[in-house]
Amino acid sequence: MTNTQLSNEEIARYSRHLILPEFGMAGQRKVKEGSVLLIGTGGLGSPLALYLAAAGVGHIGLVDFDVVDESNLQRQIVHGTGTVGVRKTESAKRRLADLNPNVEVTTYETQITAENAFELMRPYDVIVDGTDNFPTRYLTNDASVMLGKPNVYGSIFRFEGQATVFSPKDGGPCYRCLYPEPPPPGLVPSCAEGGVLGVLPGVIGTIQATEAIKLLAGIGETLVGRLMLYDALNMRFRELKLRRNPNCPVCGEHPSVTELIDYEQFCGIMPEPVQTDLSGEITPAETAAWLQRDDAPFLLDVREANEWEIGYIPGAVRISVNELQSRLNELDTAREMVVYCRSGVRSARAVNMLKQAGFRKVKNMTGGILRWSDDVDPSLPKY
Protein backbone atom coordinates (compact mmCIF):
# COMPACT_ATOMS: atom_id res chain seq x y z
CA MET A 1 0.00 0.00 0.00
CA THR A 2 1.34 3.42 -0.92
CA ASN A 3 -0.52 5.41 1.74
CA THR A 4 0.97 4.35 5.06
CA GLN A 5 -0.58 7.12 7.12
CA LEU A 6 -3.29 5.94 9.48
CA SER A 7 -6.75 7.42 9.08
CA ASN A 8 -8.81 8.39 12.11
CA GLU A 9 -10.87 5.22 11.58
CA GLU A 10 -7.71 3.10 11.54
CA ILE A 11 -6.37 4.81 14.64
CA ALA A 12 -9.59 3.92 16.44
CA ARG A 13 -9.55 0.35 15.06
CA TYR A 14 -5.93 -0.33 16.05
CA SER A 15 -5.88 1.74 19.23
CA ARG A 16 -4.95 -1.23 21.43
CA HIS A 17 -1.83 -1.67 19.29
CA LEU A 18 -1.01 2.01 19.26
CA ILE A 19 -0.88 2.34 23.06
CA LEU A 20 1.66 -0.47 23.33
CA PRO A 21 5.05 1.25 23.77
CA GLU A 22 6.79 -1.54 21.84
CA PHE A 23 4.33 -1.25 18.94
CA GLY A 24 2.89 2.24 18.64
CA MET A 25 2.20 4.22 15.48
CA ALA A 26 5.51 3.19 13.90
CA GLY A 27 4.79 -0.52 14.29
CA GLN A 28 1.25 -0.19 12.96
CA ARG A 29 2.48 1.72 9.91
CA LYS A 30 4.97 -1.07 9.19
CA VAL A 31 2.21 -3.64 9.46
CA LYS A 32 0.07 -1.59 7.09
CA GLU A 33 2.98 -1.36 4.65
CA GLY A 34 3.64 -5.08 4.96
CA SER A 35 2.43 -8.05 2.99
CA VAL A 36 2.00 -11.73 3.83
CA LEU A 37 1.44 -14.67 1.51
CA LEU A 38 -0.60 -17.34 3.25
CA ILE A 39 -0.25 -20.77 1.64
CA GLY A 40 -3.36 -22.69 2.61
CA THR A 41 -6.67 -21.45 4.03
CA GLY A 42 -7.56 -24.53 6.05
CA GLY A 43 -7.00 -25.36 9.72
CA LEU A 44 -3.89 -23.22 10.20
CA GLY A 45 -4.81 -20.71 7.52
CA SER A 46 -8.14 -19.83 9.14
CA PRO A 47 -6.87 -18.23 12.38
CA LEU A 48 -3.88 -16.87 10.47
CA ALA A 49 -6.04 -15.06 7.94
CA LEU A 50 -8.38 -13.71 10.58
CA TYR A 51 -5.70 -12.33 12.89
CA LEU A 52 -3.51 -10.96 10.10
CA ALA A 53 -6.49 -9.08 8.71
CA ALA A 54 -7.60 -7.91 12.15
CA ALA A 55 -4.08 -6.63 12.82
CA GLY A 56 -4.17 -4.50 9.69
CA VAL A 57 -1.63 -6.24 7.46
CA GLY A 58 -1.77 -4.15 4.31
CA HIS A 59 -1.80 -6.92 1.73
CA ILE A 60 -2.67 -10.59 2.30
CA GLY A 61 -2.35 -13.21 -0.41
CA LEU A 62 -4.34 -16.46 -0.12
CA VAL A 63 -3.23 -19.57 -2.00
CA ASP A 64 -5.60 -22.56 -2.10
CA PHE A 65 -7.38 -24.67 -4.71
CA ASP A 66 -9.85 -26.54 -2.48
CA VAL A 67 -13.52 -25.90 -1.71
CA VAL A 68 -15.18 -25.68 1.69
CA ASP A 69 -16.50 -29.01 2.93
CA GLU A 70 -18.76 -29.58 5.93
CA SER A 71 -16.01 -31.62 7.62
CA ASN A 72 -13.77 -28.52 7.55
CA LEU A 73 -16.00 -26.47 9.85
CA GLN A 74 -14.88 -28.20 13.07
CA ARG A 75 -11.57 -26.28 12.85
CA GLN A 76 -11.46 -24.02 9.76
CA ILE A 77 -13.17 -21.09 11.40
CA VAL A 78 -12.71 -18.55 8.63
CA HIS A 79 -15.37 -20.50 6.71
CA GLY A 80 -19.01 -21.16 7.60
CA THR A 81 -22.04 -23.21 6.75
CA GLY A 82 -23.08 -20.60 4.22
CA THR A 83 -19.90 -21.11 2.17
CA VAL A 84 -19.88 -24.92 1.97
CA GLY A 85 -19.10 -25.75 -1.65
CA VAL A 86 -17.46 -22.35 -2.24
CA ARG A 87 -13.77 -21.96 -3.08
CA LYS A 88 -11.82 -21.58 0.17
CA THR A 89 -10.01 -18.51 -1.11
CA GLU A 90 -13.30 -16.80 -1.97
CA SER A 91 -14.93 -17.88 1.31
CA ALA A 92 -11.98 -16.49 3.30
CA LYS A 93 -11.88 -13.27 1.28
CA ARG A 94 -15.54 -12.58 2.05
CA ARG A 95 -14.94 -13.03 5.78
CA LEU A 96 -11.80 -10.88 5.80
CA ALA A 97 -13.54 -8.08 3.89
CA ASP A 98 -16.18 -7.99 6.61
CA LEU A 99 -13.58 -8.15 9.38
CA ASN A 100 -11.36 -5.37 8.03
CA PRO A 101 -12.18 -3.58 4.76
CA ASN A 102 -8.87 -1.69 4.98
CA VAL A 103 -6.91 -4.81 4.05
CA GLU A 104 -6.20 -5.73 0.45
CA VAL A 105 -6.76 -9.46 -0.18
CA THR A 106 -5.51 -11.19 -3.32
CA THR A 107 -6.64 -14.75 -4.00
CA TYR A 108 -4.81 -17.40 -6.01
CA GLU A 109 -7.06 -20.35 -6.81
CA THR A 110 -4.19 -22.65 -7.62
CA GLN A 111 -1.83 -25.19 -6.17
CA ILE A 112 1.63 -23.78 -5.48
CA THR A 113 4.16 -25.58 -7.68
CA ALA A 114 7.80 -25.34 -8.69
CA GLU A 115 6.61 -23.52 -11.82
CA ASN A 116 4.64 -20.73 -10.07
CA ALA A 117 6.21 -20.50 -6.58
CA PHE A 118 8.59 -17.62 -7.30
CA GLU A 119 5.89 -15.65 -9.10
CA LEU A 120 3.46 -16.09 -6.20
CA MET A 121 5.94 -15.42 -3.40
CA ARG A 122 8.14 -12.63 -4.79
CA PRO A 123 5.72 -9.71 -4.12
CA TYR A 124 5.32 -10.55 -0.40
CA ASP A 125 7.46 -9.72 2.65
CA VAL A 126 6.63 -12.80 4.74
CA ILE A 127 5.64 -16.31 3.65
CA VAL A 128 3.44 -18.35 5.99
CA ASP A 129 3.21 -22.12 5.54
CA GLY A 130 -0.26 -23.35 6.48
CA THR A 131 -0.08 -26.54 4.43
CA ASP A 132 -0.51 -30.18 5.42
CA ASN A 133 1.70 -32.13 3.00
CA PHE A 134 5.42 -32.69 2.65
CA PRO A 135 5.96 -31.76 -1.03
CA THR A 136 4.48 -28.29 -0.47
CA ARG A 137 6.45 -27.79 2.75
CA TYR A 138 9.75 -28.54 1.04
CA LEU A 139 8.77 -26.40 -1.95
CA THR A 140 7.76 -23.48 0.28
CA ASN A 141 11.01 -23.78 2.23
CA ASP A 142 13.30 -23.92 -0.79
CA ALA A 143 11.60 -21.04 -2.60
CA SER A 144 11.63 -18.91 0.59
CA VAL A 145 15.37 -19.52 1.07
CA MET A 146 16.16 -18.73 -2.54
CA LEU A 147 14.12 -15.51 -2.37
CA GLY A 148 15.56 -14.55 1.04
CA LYS A 149 12.14 -14.37 2.70
CA PRO A 150 11.20 -15.58 6.21
CA ASN A 151 9.01 -18.69 6.26
CA VAL A 152 6.65 -18.89 9.26
CA TYR A 153 6.07 -22.61 9.68
CA GLY A 154 3.45 -24.59 11.58
CA SER A 155 2.15 -28.15 11.55
CA ILE A 156 -0.52 -30.08 13.44
CA PHE A 157 -1.55 -33.68 14.00
CA ARG A 158 -4.10 -35.13 16.43
CA PHE A 159 -3.28 -33.31 19.71
CA GLU A 160 0.18 -31.99 18.89
CA GLY A 161 1.53 -29.03 16.98
CA GLN A 162 4.76 -27.18 16.31
CA ALA A 163 5.79 -23.78 15.05
CA THR A 164 8.95 -21.88 14.16
CA VAL A 165 10.33 -19.27 11.77
CA PHE A 166 12.77 -20.48 9.14
CA SER A 167 15.00 -17.58 8.08
CA PRO A 168 18.61 -18.41 7.12
CA LYS A 169 19.28 -14.78 6.20
CA ASP A 170 18.75 -13.97 9.89
CA GLY A 171 21.12 -16.70 10.99
CA GLY A 172 18.54 -19.41 11.58
CA PRO A 173 18.01 -22.77 9.92
CA CYS A 174 15.60 -23.75 7.17
CA TYR A 175 13.11 -26.63 7.07
CA ARG A 176 15.67 -28.95 5.49
CA CYS A 177 18.06 -28.37 8.39
CA LEU A 178 15.36 -29.81 10.66
CA TYR A 179 14.03 -32.46 8.28
CA PRO A 180 16.70 -33.30 5.68
CA GLU A 181 14.62 -36.08 4.14
CA PRO A 182 10.83 -36.58 3.97
CA PRO A 183 9.34 -39.65 5.65
CA PRO A 184 8.41 -42.59 3.42
CA PRO A 185 5.01 -42.12 1.72
CA GLY A 186 2.15 -43.36 3.89
CA LEU A 187 4.20 -43.50 7.10
CA VAL A 188 2.68 -40.29 8.51
CA PRO A 189 -1.13 -40.34 8.18
CA SER A 190 -2.95 -37.19 7.20
CA CYS A 191 -5.32 -35.36 9.53
CA ALA A 192 -8.17 -36.91 7.53
CA GLU A 193 -6.89 -40.34 8.56
CA GLY A 194 -5.48 -39.60 12.02
CA GLY A 195 -7.82 -36.82 13.14
CA VAL A 196 -7.10 -33.46 14.75
CA LEU A 197 -8.49 -31.65 17.78
CA GLY A 198 -10.47 -28.76 16.32
CA VAL A 199 -8.95 -26.07 18.53
CA LEU A 200 -5.33 -27.22 17.93
CA PRO A 201 -4.82 -25.34 14.63
CA GLY A 202 -6.23 -22.27 16.36
CA VAL A 203 -3.37 -22.36 18.86
CA ILE A 204 -0.61 -23.04 16.31
CA GLY A 205 -2.08 -20.71 13.68
CA THR A 206 -2.31 -17.90 16.21
CA ILE A 207 1.36 -18.42 17.12
CA GLN A 208 2.22 -18.20 13.42
CA ALA A 209 0.17 -15.00 13.07
CA THR A 210 1.97 -13.54 16.08
CA GLU A 211 5.35 -14.24 14.48
CA ALA A 212 4.31 -12.77 11.12
CA ILE A 213 3.08 -9.57 12.77
CA LYS A 214 6.29 -9.25 14.81
CA LEU A 215 8.38 -9.72 11.67
CA LEU A 216 6.47 -6.97 9.88
CA ALA A 217 6.51 -4.59 12.84
CA GLY A 218 10.16 -5.32 13.67
CA ILE A 219 9.48 -5.98 17.34
CA GLY A 220 10.31 -8.65 19.90
CA GLU A 221 12.21 -11.90 19.58
CA THR A 222 10.93 -14.28 16.92
CA LEU A 223 11.08 -18.08 16.80
CA VAL A 224 14.09 -18.04 14.46
CA GLY A 225 16.36 -20.80 15.78
CA ARG A 226 13.69 -22.17 18.12
CA LEU A 227 11.04 -24.85 17.58
CA MET A 228 7.98 -24.55 19.80
CA LEU A 229 6.20 -27.84 20.53
CA TYR A 230 2.67 -27.95 21.89
CA ASP A 231 0.88 -30.92 23.46
CA ALA A 232 -2.80 -30.02 23.77
CA LEU A 233 -3.82 -33.24 25.49
CA ASN A 234 -1.49 -32.61 28.43
CA MET A 235 -1.37 -28.80 28.00
CA ARG A 236 2.40 -28.50 27.76
CA PHE A 237 4.69 -26.27 25.74
CA ARG A 238 8.30 -27.22 25.09
CA GLU A 239 11.04 -25.50 23.13
CA LEU A 240 13.95 -26.94 21.17
CA LYS A 241 16.97 -24.99 19.98
CA LEU A 242 17.56 -25.23 16.24
CA ARG A 243 20.85 -24.66 14.49
CA ARG A 244 21.57 -24.03 10.86
CA ASN A 245 23.26 -26.97 9.16
CA PRO A 246 26.35 -25.72 7.30
CA ASN A 247 25.99 -28.72 4.98
CA CYS A 248 22.31 -28.10 4.24
CA PRO A 249 21.70 -28.61 0.50
CA VAL A 250 19.59 -25.44 0.33
CA CYS A 251 20.80 -22.91 2.94
CA GLY A 252 24.26 -24.36 3.68
CA GLU A 253 27.64 -22.90 2.81
CA HIS A 254 27.80 -24.82 -0.47
CA PRO A 255 24.19 -25.45 -1.52
CA SER A 256 23.59 -28.22 -4.02
CA VAL A 257 19.91 -27.38 -4.57
CA THR A 258 19.94 -24.01 -6.33
CA GLU A 259 16.68 -24.28 -8.25
CA LEU A 260 13.27 -25.71 -7.51
CA ILE A 261 12.87 -29.43 -8.15
CA ASP A 262 10.12 -32.02 -8.56
CA TYR A 263 8.90 -32.17 -4.95
CA GLU A 264 6.39 -34.96 -5.51
CA GLN A 265 9.24 -37.15 -6.73
CA PHE A 266 11.54 -35.94 -3.92
CA CYS A 267 8.94 -37.05 -1.37
CA GLY A 268 8.49 -40.39 -3.12
CA ILE A 269 4.96 -39.62 -4.28
CA MET A 270 4.62 -41.07 -7.73
CA PRO A 271 1.73 -40.34 -10.11
CA GLU A 272 -0.98 -42.96 -10.22
CA PRO A 273 -0.12 -45.52 -12.91
CA VAL A 274 -2.56 -46.16 -15.72
CA GLN A 275 -4.70 -49.05 -14.53
CA THR A 276 -4.57 -52.00 -16.88
CA ASP A 277 -5.48 -54.66 -14.32
CA LEU A 278 -8.25 -53.78 -11.91
CA SER A 279 -8.56 -57.32 -10.51
CA GLY A 280 -7.30 -56.10 -7.13
CA GLU A 281 -10.03 -53.47 -6.77
CA ILE A 282 -13.78 -53.55 -6.33
CA THR A 283 -16.36 -50.77 -6.04
CA PRO A 284 -18.78 -50.47 -3.12
CA ALA A 285 -21.71 -51.23 -5.43
CA GLU A 286 -20.01 -54.40 -6.65
CA THR A 287 -19.18 -55.34 -3.06
CA ALA A 288 -22.80 -54.86 -1.96
CA ALA A 289 -24.04 -57.09 -4.77
CA TRP A 290 -21.43 -59.76 -3.97
CA LEU A 291 -22.39 -59.77 -0.28
CA GLN A 292 -25.91 -60.84 -1.27
CA ARG A 293 -24.70 -63.99 -3.04
CA ASP A 294 -24.01 -67.44 -1.60
CA ASP A 295 -20.28 -66.99 -2.24
CA ALA A 296 -20.17 -63.73 -0.23
CA PRO A 297 -16.65 -62.57 0.66
CA PHE A 298 -15.17 -61.95 4.09
CA LEU A 299 -15.42 -58.21 4.76
CA LEU A 300 -12.44 -56.70 6.62
CA ASP A 301 -12.57 -53.19 8.12
CA VAL A 302 -9.05 -51.87 8.81
CA ARG A 303 -10.05 -48.62 10.54
CA GLU A 304 -9.56 -47.72 14.19
CA ALA A 305 -12.09 -48.54 16.93
CA ASN A 306 -13.28 -44.92 17.28
CA GLU A 307 -14.05 -44.82 13.55
CA TRP A 308 -16.00 -48.08 13.82
CA GLU A 309 -18.20 -46.41 16.45
CA ILE A 310 -19.18 -43.74 13.92
CA GLY A 311 -20.50 -46.37 11.54
CA TYR A 312 -19.62 -49.64 9.81
CA ILE A 313 -20.81 -52.00 7.10
CA PRO A 314 -22.92 -54.82 8.59
CA GLY A 315 -21.13 -58.14 8.65
CA ALA A 316 -17.63 -56.65 8.64
CA VAL A 317 -14.89 -57.68 11.04
CA ARG A 318 -12.55 -54.95 12.29
CA ILE A 319 -8.78 -55.36 12.54
CA SER A 320 -6.95 -52.04 12.26
CA VAL A 321 -4.18 -51.79 9.70
CA ASN A 322 -1.71 -51.20 12.55
CA GLU A 323 -2.68 -54.55 14.15
CA LEU A 324 -2.99 -56.53 10.94
CA GLN A 325 0.53 -57.93 10.77
CA SER A 326 0.26 -59.48 14.23
CA ARG A 327 -3.24 -60.90 13.61
CA LEU A 328 -2.84 -62.53 10.21
CA ASN A 329 -3.42 -65.94 11.79
CA GLU A 330 -7.06 -64.94 12.41
CA LEU A 331 -7.72 -64.71 8.67
CA ASP A 332 -8.42 -67.48 6.15
CA THR A 333 -6.12 -67.42 3.12
CA ALA A 334 -8.52 -69.62 1.15
CA ARG A 335 -11.54 -67.30 1.44
CA GLU A 336 -12.34 -64.36 -0.84
CA MET A 337 -11.82 -61.09 1.05
CA VAL A 338 -12.76 -57.43 0.54
CA VAL A 339 -10.91 -54.83 2.59
CA TYR A 340 -12.14 -51.30 3.27
CA CYS A 341 -11.26 -48.22 5.33
CA ARG A 342 -12.47 -44.62 5.33
CA SER A 343 -11.40 -43.60 1.82
CA GLY A 344 -9.39 -46.49 0.39
CA VAL A 345 -5.84 -45.44 1.31
CA ARG A 346 -5.25 -47.60 4.37
CA SER A 347 -7.13 -50.53 2.85
CA ALA A 348 -4.81 -50.42 -0.19
CA ARG A 349 -1.87 -50.62 2.21
CA ALA A 350 -3.55 -53.51 4.02
CA VAL A 351 -4.16 -55.37 0.74
CA ASN A 352 -0.46 -55.08 -0.15
CA MET A 353 0.42 -56.38 3.30
CA LEU A 354 -1.95 -59.33 2.93
CA LYS A 355 -0.64 -60.20 -0.54
CA GLN A 356 2.92 -60.17 0.75
CA ALA A 357 1.79 -62.60 3.46
CA GLY A 358 0.42 -65.03 0.87
CA PHE A 359 -3.24 -63.96 0.59
CA ARG A 360 -4.28 -64.09 -3.06
CA LYS A 361 -8.08 -63.71 -2.96
CA VAL A 362 -8.15 -60.16 -1.61
CA LYS A 363 -9.55 -56.93 -3.07
CA ASN A 364 -9.49 -53.28 -2.02
CA MET A 365 -12.87 -51.50 -1.92
CA THR A 366 -12.17 -48.24 -3.73
CA GLY A 367 -13.38 -45.06 -2.09
CA GLY A 368 -13.87 -46.81 1.24
CA ILE A 369 -16.85 -46.30 3.51
CA LEU A 370 -17.28 -42.74 2.23
CA ARG A 371 -18.10 -44.03 -1.24
CA TRP A 372 -20.23 -46.79 0.28
CA SER A 373 -22.32 -44.04 1.86
CA ASP A 374 -22.62 -42.30 -1.52
CA ASP A 375 -23.35 -45.34 -3.66
CA VAL A 376 -24.93 -47.97 -1.38
CA ASP A 377 -26.23 -46.75 1.98
CA PRO A 378 -26.78 -42.95 2.35
CA SER A 379 -27.89 -43.48 5.97
CA LEU A 380 -24.30 -44.30 6.94
CA PRO A 381 -22.72 -41.10 8.35
CA LYS A 382 -19.70 -39.57 6.58
CA TYR A 383 -16.79 -38.15 8.54
Folded structure, characterized:
With 383 residues, this protein is of the alpha/beta class. It folds into 2 domains: 34-266, 3-Layer(aba) Sandwich (Rossmann fold), CATH 3.40.50; 281-375, Rhodanese-like domain (Oxidized Rhodanese, domain 1), CATH 3.40.250. 33% of the residues lie in helices and 16% in strands. It has an 8-stranded mixed sheet, with helices on both faces. It has a 5-stranded parallel sheet with strand order 9-13-12-10-11. Helix 4 packs parallel to helix 5 and helix 4 runs parallel beside helix 10 (200-217). The model is unreliable at 272-277 (pLDDT under 50).
Name a few traits of the molecule.
383 residues, alpha/beta, Rossmann fold, Oxidized Rhodanese, domain 1, 2 domains, eight-stranded mixed sheet, 15 helices, 13 strands
Number of strands: 13
On the 0 to 100 scale, the average pLDDT is 93
Indicate the CATH architecture of the largest domain: 3-Layer(aba) Sandwich
Radius of gyration: 24 Å
Class computed from helices, strands and strand pairing? alpha/beta
Give the helix proportion (percent range).
25-40%
CATH superfamily of the largest domain: NAD(P)-binding Rossmann-like Domain
Count of separate DSSP helical elements: 15
CATH class of the largest domain: Alpha Beta
Order of helices and strands: HHHEHEHEHEHEEHHHEEHEHEHEEHEH
Domains counted in the coordinates: how many?
2
Strand order of the largest sheet: 3-2-1-4-5-6-7-8
For the termini, the CA-CA separation is 43 Å
Global outline: elongated
Low-confidence residue ranges: 272-277
Task: Please indicate the percent range of residues in DSSP E strands (runs of 2 or more).
Answer: 15-25%
